[in-house]
Amino acid sequence: MEKIKCAIIGSGNIGTDLIYKIQRSQFLEPVWMVGIDPDSEGLSRAKDLGLKITSDGVDGLLPHVLKDNIQIAFDATSAYVHAENSRKLNELAVLMIDLTPAAIGPLCVPPVNLKDHTEKLEMNVNMISCAGQATIPIINSVVQIQSVEYAEIVASLASKSVGLGTRANLDEFTYTTSSAIETVGGARKGKALAIINPAEPPLVMRNTIYCITDDKPDEAKITASILAMIKEVQKYVPGYKLVNGPIFDDRKVSVFMEVGGLGDYLPKYAGNLDIMTAAATRTAEMFAEEIQSGKITLTPVEAK
Amino acid sequence: MTQNTKKLSSLHGRKVILHDMCLRDGMHAKAEQISVEQMVTVATALDDAGVPYIQVTHGAGLGGNSLQHGFALASNEEYISAVAPLMKQAKVSVLLIPGLGTMKELQSAYDAGARSVHVATHCTEANTSPQHMAFARELGMDTTGFLMMAHLNDAKGLTEQALLMESYGAQTVYLTDSAGYMLPADVTECISALRDSLKPETEIGFHGHHNLGMGIANSIAAIEAGASRIDGSAAGLGAGAGNTPLEVFAAVCERMGIETGVDLFKLMDVSENIILPMMDHVIRVDRESLTLGYAGVYSTFLLHAKRAAERFGIPARDILVELGRQKMIAGQEDMIVDTAMTMAKKRGIAIK
Predict the structure, then answer these.
(1) How far apart are the C-alpha atoms of A48 and A31, rounded to whole Å?
(2) Which residues of B touch A247 (CB under 8 A)?
(3) In this complex, do A212 and B102 lie within 8 Å of one another by their Cβ atoms?
(4) For position B3, what pLDDT does the model report?
(5) Any CB–CB contact under 8 A between B154 and chain A?
(6) Of A130, A304, B88, B206, which one is least surrounded by beta carbons within 10 A?
(7) What's the CATH architecture for B2-278?
């Protein structure tokens, strides 16, 4: 079966790491890399890895979409330009996987709700944030056992793994992740905190997840549910590991996680890159399988 | 009398703006349990003593109410709107740490009456603050960039970070000795480097902690090197061994001829009559707070480490030293419990 051809928009940390993840996929093939800076390291690396490149932004890609049969695009630019990128590519029947905090499409965390999205064809799905991908599965695994009044997550990221785009727009990261804790995780109220630590050697990405359950937590059931969910995430992020917990203090459940990366583009400490790119790749693969089997057909989205 | 023959200090006539922290940093020392009524009592007394800036928020600032940092008795808006209208001359300020607080929260703090903000980042991560700094300026607030855990960067690095903050719109840049680790010579070197590089109209500030007993000496060193704003708190009510005790600092300033505009005796009365009785524990350099200064650990970790020590059976000093070794920074309070659990496992102590 022929692989589904993909374009990557944005040549920063996330876009560059995506090349490696997609190249390894049995369903996807990276064909184009789109940047805006002809001298960016991401673009030159993409070229070395055999991709076609343009430094003219999405407009540089549009004339080639039909000829090269691009069906899926990954947007790793910024929340501010995503809507426009998505509109232009949707018009050409390209499905959009959004890795910015724009969140104009439905939010997706693969082990929690990916099936819902592939069953009804979505032309734009959003991957929330690295912290969202790393913590929402755990929150949801608690919610599956009993209702959660409030969930809070703390993501600690190595300074070297946080790009300029994320730094300049930290509030968007906070808003998008907090709201996804509610809409995807299932907690009634959510809050997200991010810490950027410059220690050398860089610290591996850490995530702490707190849930306040409505009733006294069923410790055995919740522990089993969390461990089962960790196994699901490990299928696409092998470095997703429980460090401590769960511990229970009255109605509070605390879980301490670590996310090691595969070391594709940035070293292994940058698990925040991996969990985002791996989740996006897994999402695209599910759509690709449906396209290949003929279950879904991508159609142009008419301009409003 | 020898007193009369002493030379005037070289700082005679210098003007310095004092900024009281006991209703923000002091929240850390009270596990965030200061009531609205207490805030009003303290702030009106400080205002009456002529303190020009008073910080009023959760210890971790805007967005601070959380499981990670504890829940205060009231929202930041409730605190600010209770205090601000009563101020005769003082401005109410807030703390905002990007990644925790957001622009939405800054807007609502402004609406409640806050007119000055410390936008705080770790001392190497200034570029997480441009949107907050720009927004604060747009609101017309007195805007300060606050480089935390300053001992973890050198003079050259701190200067680069300060220049970034200045470029985002900071009118003042502070070096923040969050761990109370710096010594006067470090302060002199770093503040001098900032003064040489920042625009002349950009003010420089220093925020000290008293973990090595250096709060006053460091603040004086900062003024000698060109700082014109100093944070402290009445009776030192703040994290770790407390902030630079403001009444002591004001007395030293008066002796040196540094002009602060505050009424020293009134400030001493606030400290003795109002703040001291509020303290849950005597804030001083004790074994654990000294460990913070000695090992370079974020002062706010103190009470969290004491709680983890009790829960997991590992001495607080051991936990703090390990956190220092791992280079944990402001905001990583979750790693205190995590570290204590990992240490307990290694020592064969069962986790309940």
Answers:
(1) 12
(2) 337, 341, 351
(3) no
(4) 53
(5) no
(6) A304
(7) Alpha-Beta Barrel (3.20)
Distance separating alpha carbons of residues B235 and B281, to the nearest angstrom: 12
pLDDT greater than 70 at residue A303: no
- CATH code for the domain defined by B300-346: 1.10.8.60
In this predicted model, what pLDDT tens digit does every residue of B214-249 receive, in sequence order? 999 999 999 999 999 999 999 999 999 999 999 999
CATH 3.40.50.720 in chain A, residues?
Answer: 4-127+277-292
Q: Tell me, what's the pLDDT at A118?
A: 76
- Mean pLDDT calculated for residue range B80-84: 98
Residues 6+ apart with CB under 8 A from B229: B16, B17, B18, B19, B144, B172, B174, B203, B204, B205, B206
Secondary structure class of B188 (helix, strand, coil): helix
CATH 3.90.1150.10 fits A130-270, yes or no: no
Check if A130 is active-site: yes
Lowest-confidence region among A90-99, A109-118, A178-187? A109-118
Q: What is the pLDDT of residues B152-207, one digit of tens each?
A: 999 999 999 999 999 999 999 999 999 999 999 999 999 999 999 999 999 999 99
Task: Examine the pLDDT at B2 and tell me if it is beyond 60.
Answer: no
Residue A266's CB: how many other CB atoms inside 10 A? 20
**Does 2.60.200.30 match the CATH number of domain A4-127+277-292?**
no
* Strand arrangement of the beta sheet that strand A205-213 belongs to: A189-197, A148-158, A205-213, A252-259, A240-249
Q: Which residues of B touch A191 (CB under 8 A)?
A: 66
Whole-prediction pTM: 0.94
- Closest-CA distance of chain A to residue B161, Å: 13
Q: Which two tokens stand for residue B172?
A: 């003042």
Q: How far apart are CA B296 and CA B300, in angstroms?
A: 12
Out of A159, A195, A245, whose CB is closest to B331?
Answer: A195
B152 touching A (Cβ < 8 Å) = yes
| Interchain proximity A197–B130, CB inside 8 Å | no
Q: Give the active site residue among A6, A108, A130, A211.
A: A130
- The ipTM is 0.93
